[in-house]
Amino acid sequence: MTFLAILATAVVVLPLLAIFAYLLYKGAASVNLDFFTKVLKPPGEVGGGLANSIVGSAVLLAEASVIGVPIGIGGGIFLAEYGRGTKFANAVRFTADVLNGVPSIIMGVAAYALIVSPHISWLPFVGHFSGFAGGVALGIMMIPTITRTSEEMLLMVPNAVREAALGLGVPNWRSILSITVRTASPGIITGCMLAFARVAGETAPLIFTVLGNSFWSTSLNRPIDALPLRIYVLALSPYDDWHRMAWAGSLVLIVLIVLAVSLVRYVTSRGVMKGAS
Amino acid sequence: MGVGIEVANLNAWYGTNHTLQDINLHIPANHATALIGPSGCGKSTFVRCLNRMHETNPIARVTGSVKMGEIDIYGDAKPVQIRRRVGMVFQRPNPFPTMSIYDNVASGLKLNGFRNRRVLDETVELSLKKSALWDEVKDDLKKKSGASLSGGQQQRLCIARALAVDPEVLLMDEPASALDPVSTSKIEDLIFELKSQYTIVIVTHNMQQAARVAEKTGFFLNGRLVEFDSTHKIFTNPSDKRTEDYITGRFG
After folding, report:
1. Is B231 among the domain residues?
2. Domain count across chain A
3. Does residue B234 belong to the interface with chain A, where contact is any CB pair within 8 Å?
4. Coil, strand, or helix at residue B35?
5. Residue A127 is part of which domain span?
6. pLDDT band for position A271 (50/70/90)?
7. B206, part of any domain
8. Which of A169, A178, A183 is the closest to B80 by Cβ?
9. Which chain B residue lies closest to A181 (C-alpha atoms)?
């Protein structure tokens, strides 16, 4: 039994390590200071980097988080605290589960139809390819994961804790925000990080929305570059030095996601009491 | 100081289950009143009606009147205002798991928007002294989580938390039933100390406990208050046959 468990673990971990090792082998040589500070050079020219793609990804993920995290957690709070047992809550839960299973390319097409397609071009951000549209697509993709994990985590908070707060004369909304959500916060943060890591590597919804940009741009109102999208373009190209850039880009993408997740975990865990129960 | 509680024609339901039927009694100020009776007799529901916690369950319903001093708690006031004047201690110790000892005691004040650092410090110290926990925790008030204490300490922490909002009435729903004998006797000593300043209502399964701490005792059976009298009379010369049967261990 122990042997089987170890074997199963190895089967899971080995491919992960293999992928990371291969990325290091193929990509590490192309990662240098220029990679983080310069934009892509035309094929054949020496130097250049993916600075615009990295910053573009950061901008998109920030926008996606601003949209996805509050709505996602709010939905989780509704399902666990206010809507328990109601028909509307069941409908929301079902919709979230379906949304979770929708292929990401569909999200891109939907964002294209709603935001990019030029039928309402008199609004800002709307009617053309833009970073804004990509952030919306990624943000919507984050919502169902965050909502469902938040709900599960809130339901795990014992009712005794809720009653303790209500018994002190704390209003229900205050008790939910300051006690229940806080008690469940490690799990909720894990849910947010899962959603974040998932959309950080998404390419399909970006093809229809942000389009990609070979030049330096951080504006949400214009086409913007993103690391997964750039990797896709570079890897499809016929040039060897662009292939090397794609390997390096993949390596950097993975490392940056790990760094971002670790940073959030570190910052949010400092305030929480150690040694609880 | 505590206030007396006047309960008249109190009825309570869970769904279609009529759990309290026509309860009438007067709980005296600054005394401990014990409520005894077999499981499911309605005594917990009764104390939960005294601070309007009963209605937090969506299928629950209450009729009748409860007067706490001059206030009709089902008339004029909002539930949150009532609960600030009526502290509650639950059967299982339930400190807030993410908070330090200090924050647990200060939570009632902090969550209601109170921020004055100096007053908070004083209140926390005073409340922990009243609940006889100060000497055991004063060195790591902010270092240790409330959940890291032992069960008995956690229950005294919950008492301190309830006292910190300066209530007039303290409701205790089987406060010692999850504790060992030593912790139980500490809680009982505490009730003895506190009853000069607060009106205490304690639900208990333990008849010796009722006899030790309370001046008045009520016996509940099947959702009705069978008998309510001085503790001495209830335990030595009850006027109702059912009370006598329960006290002498013939059922329950």
Report:
1. yes
2. 1
3. no
4. strand
5. 47-270
6. low
7. yes
8. A169
9. B98
CATH code of the domain in which B187 resides: 3.40.50.300
* Whether A166 and B94 lie within 8 Å, measured CB to CB: no
Three-class DSSP category at B64: strand
* Residues of chain A found within 8 Å of residue B158, distances taken between Cβ atoms: 164
Segments forming the whole domain that contains residue B232: 5-99+168-247
- Which three-class secondary structure state does DSSP give residue B228? strand
Give whole-number Cα distances, B177 to A241, B93, B193, B206, B244, in Å: 73, 10, 20, 8, 23
Q: How close does chain B come to A188, measured CA to CA in Å?
A: 14
Q: List, for residues B107-140, the tens digit of each pLDDT value.
A: 999 998 888 999 999 999 999 998 989 999 999 8
**Cβ of B53 and A167 within 8 Å?**
yes
pTM across the whole model: 0.86
Nearest to B94 among A161, A182, A274 (CB): A161
Q: Count A/B contacts: CB-CB distance under 8 Å.
A: 86
Distance, in Å, from the CA atom of B80 to the CA atom of A180, rounded to the nearest integer, reads 17
Identify residue B202 by its one-letter amino acid code: I
Q: What is the pLDDT of residue A44?
A: 82
Instruction: List, for residues A154-205, the tens digit of each pLDDT value.
Output: 999 999 999 999 999 999 999 999 999 999 998 999 999 999 999 999 999 9
CB contact under 8 Å between B100 and A183, yes or no, is no
Q: Please, what is the end-to-end C-alpha distance for chain B in angstroms?
A: 36
Determine contact, residues B182/B152, Cβ cutoff 8 Å.
yes
Q: Please report whether residue A216 resides in a domain.
A: yes
- Is residue B148 in a domain? no
Query: CA of B105 to nearest chain A CA: how many angstroms apart?
Result: 11
Number of domains in chain B: 1
Residue A125 belongs to some domain of the structure: yes
Residue B108 to residue A170, Cβ atoms within 8 A:
yes
